[in-house]
Amino acid sequence: ELRARNPESQFDRVLLGLDNDIIVMMAMEDTFGLRTEIRFKDIERNPPLEEDLFHFSPPEGADVIGDF
């Protein structure tokens, strides 16, 4: 259970459901008492990904820290 520190936060608390260290459920309760529940299935941790799946080019004039 995670609780908001800031009283003006959109969510009052977030609940995480784990099964063998894998998240299977997340429930978020807002300040009005409404609950949004998300269930996860067929989770694959750290699957192999193609190198060209993601590509990032910094926009012109952006400051880049580190090697690019």
Helices and strands, in order, run as: EEEE
| N-to-C CA distance | 39 Å
The total beta strand count reads 4
How much of the polypeptide forms β-strand, as a percent range?
35-45%
Q: How helical, in percent, are the residues?
A: under 10%
Question: What is the radius of gyration computed over CA atoms, rounded to a whole number of angstroms?
Answer: 19 Å
Question: Uncertain regions: pLDDT < 50 for 5+ in a row?
Answer: none
Mean pLDDT: 90
Strand order of the largest sheet: 1-2-3-4
Which shape, going by the Cα principal axes?
flat
Structural class: mainly beta
Give a quick account of the main beta sheet: strands, pairing sense, barrel closure.
Answer: 4 strands, antiparallel
Q: What is the number of helical segments per DSSP (H or I, 4+ residues)?
A: 0
Per-chain topology:
Elements: E1 2-3, E2 11-19, E3 22-30, E4 35-39
Antiparallel strand pairs: 1-2, 2-3, 3-4
